[in-house]
Amino acid sequence: MKKLSMSAKVFLGFGIGIVLGMIFQKDILFVKPVGDIFLKLIQMIVIPLIFCSIISGIASIGDIGKLRRIGTKVMGFYIVTTILSTILGLVVSHIIRPGTGFRMYDIQASGEAVKAAEPMSVGSAILGMIPSNPIAALAKGELMQVIVFAVFVGVTITILGDRVSNVKKLIDEGTQIMFKVTDLVMQTTPYGVCALAACSVGEYGLAVFGVMGKFIFTHYMAALSIIVCLYLFIVRGIAKIPLSDFFRKITEVWLVAFSTTSSSGTLPVTLKVVEQEFRVKHELASFTLPLGATVNMNGIAAYYAVTIMFVSQVYGVDLTLAQQASFIFITTLISIGTPGIPNSGIVLTVMLLGTMGLPATIMGMIVGIFRPIDMIHTALNVTGDVVSTLAVARIENMYDEA
C-alpha cells in the first residue's frame, strides 16, 4: 500500500466503498461518521489556507511599480479569463445538465427541499465583503471577508517591502505550513472516499454512476469550450501567434500538468517553454507565470461552475440568474485564492457549496473521480497563465528577437 500513489489509493478506496455499498446496502450507513470526519477536516483547513496563500501570492510581487504597470494588465487578463471561464462552465452545464434525472437528499434531512442561498444586492454584497472585525471573519469562516482582508494585507506588505520582510517571511512559512497540513488531511482521502462512496451506493444504488460519468463529460466539454472560444481567440487575435505553433509548443506543458495536477509543480516547465519556445522576455515571464500559478485558476473556476450546477441539479435546486451572477462573483474571488497544488479544488468546493446554501454530501463521490477532472483543469490553469502572458508580451513588446 505504501508504494501506491495517492490517486491509486483513492481509486482503491472508491472501489472498496462501492463493493461494500452493493453488498450491505443501507446497513453500511454506520460508517457515515468516517466520511463526515473527512469533510470536517477539509472544512477545518479552508480559511487559514486561503488567508495565507492570497497574502503570500500578492506579496511575492515585491515591486509596487511593476504591480501598477504590467501587473494591472496581467491581472486584467487573469480576472477576465476567470470570469469568462466560469460563464462558459455555467453555459455548458445548462446545455448538458449532468445532474438531471438523479435526486439525492441528505440522510438526516427532514424531507424538505434544499434551497440555495438568496443572492444579495450589489450594494449589500460589496458591504458584506468588508469585515468590521477581521478576527471575527476568520473565526466565523466568512469567506469573502477573509479574502478581502487578505488582499489588503498582501498589497500593504508589497508597498512596505523590506520594512516588513519578517512578516512576509512569516506569511510565506505559514503558507507552507498550510500546504503541508492540507497534504496531511488529504492523506485521509482514501478512507473518507471509501466511507462516503459506500454510503452513497448503499443509500441510492448503482444509479449514482451514470450521473457521475455525465459529470466528468461535462467538465471536459467545458474545458474544450474555454480553449476554443477563449484561449484560441487570445492567442491568434491578441498574441498574434499561429495556432499550429501554439499547440506544438504548449504540448510539453500539458503533459506535465496532466501528470502532476499542480499548477505550481508545472511552473518550471511552463517558464522554460514560455521563455525558450515562445521567446518571451525573462523579466515578464518570471513575474506573470509564478503569479498566475497562484492567482489565475481558469480551470478551477470552470470546475466550480460545473460542480455547483451539478449539485444544484442533483438536489433539484433551480438557481436564479441573480444567484448565478452572485456565484460568478464569488467564484472569481475564490479562484484567485485557490493554491496551485493537487486537490486544492476539493477543499474549497466544500466551502463554496456552503456559501451557496447547497449540501456537500455528494462530495465523496466527486472526490472518488476527481483525478481525471483535476487533470484537465490543471491543464486549463497553466494554459491560461501562458496565454495571458503571451498577450501581455505582445502588448508590451516584450518578446526576445530570434
UniProtKB/TrEMBL annotation:
<keyword id="KW-0813">Transport</keyword>
<dbReference type="InterPro" id="IPR018107">
    <property type="entry name" value="Na-dicarboxylate_symporter_CS"/>
</dbReference>
<feature type="transmembrane region" description="Helical">
    <location>
        <begin position="251"/>
        <end position="271"/>
    </location>
</feature>
<protein>
    <submittedName>
        <fullName>Na+/H+-dicarboxylate symporter</fullName>
    </submittedName>
</protein>
<keyword id="KW-1133">Transmembrane helix</keyword>
<dbReference type="GO" id="GO:0005886">
    <property type="term" value="C:plasma membrane"/>
</dbReference>
<feature type="transmembrane region" description="Helical">
    <location>
        <begin position="143"/>
        <end position="161"/>
    </location>
</feature>
<keyword id="KW-0472">Membrane</keyword>
<keyword id="KW-0812">Transmembrane</keyword>
<dbReference type="InterPro" id="IPR001991">
    <property type="entry name" value="Na-dicarboxylate_symporter"/>
</dbReference>
<feature type="transmembrane region" description="Helical">
    <location>
        <begin position="74"/>
        <end position="96"/>
    </location>
</feature>
<dbReference type="Pfam" id="PF00375">
    <property type="entry name" value="SDF"/>
</dbReference>
<keyword id="KW-0769">Symport</keyword>
<dbReference type="InterPro" id="IPR036458">
    <property type="entry name" value="Na:dicarbo_symporter_sf"/>
</dbReference>
<dbReference type="GO" id="GO:0015293">
    <property type="term" value="F:symporter activity"/>
</dbReference>
<feature type="transmembrane region" description="Helical">
    <location>
        <begin position="41"/>
        <end position="62"/>
    </location>
</feature>
<feature type="transmembrane region" description="Helical">
    <location>
        <begin position="217"/>
        <end position="239"/>
    </location>
</feature>
<feature type="transmembrane region" description="Helical">
    <location>
        <begin position="347"/>
        <end position="370"/>
    </location>
</feature>
<feature type="transmembrane region" description="Helical">
    <location>
        <begin position="188"/>
        <end position="211"/>
    </location>
</feature>
<keyword id="KW-1003">Cell membrane</keyword>
<dbReference type="GO" id="GO:0046942">
    <property type="term" value="P:carboxylic acid transport"/>
</dbReference>
<feature type="transmembrane region" description="Helical">
    <location>
        <begin position="324"/>
        <end position="341"/>
    </location>
</feature>
<feature type="transmembrane region" description="Helical">
    <location>
        <begin position="291"/>
        <end position="312"/>
    </location>
</feature>
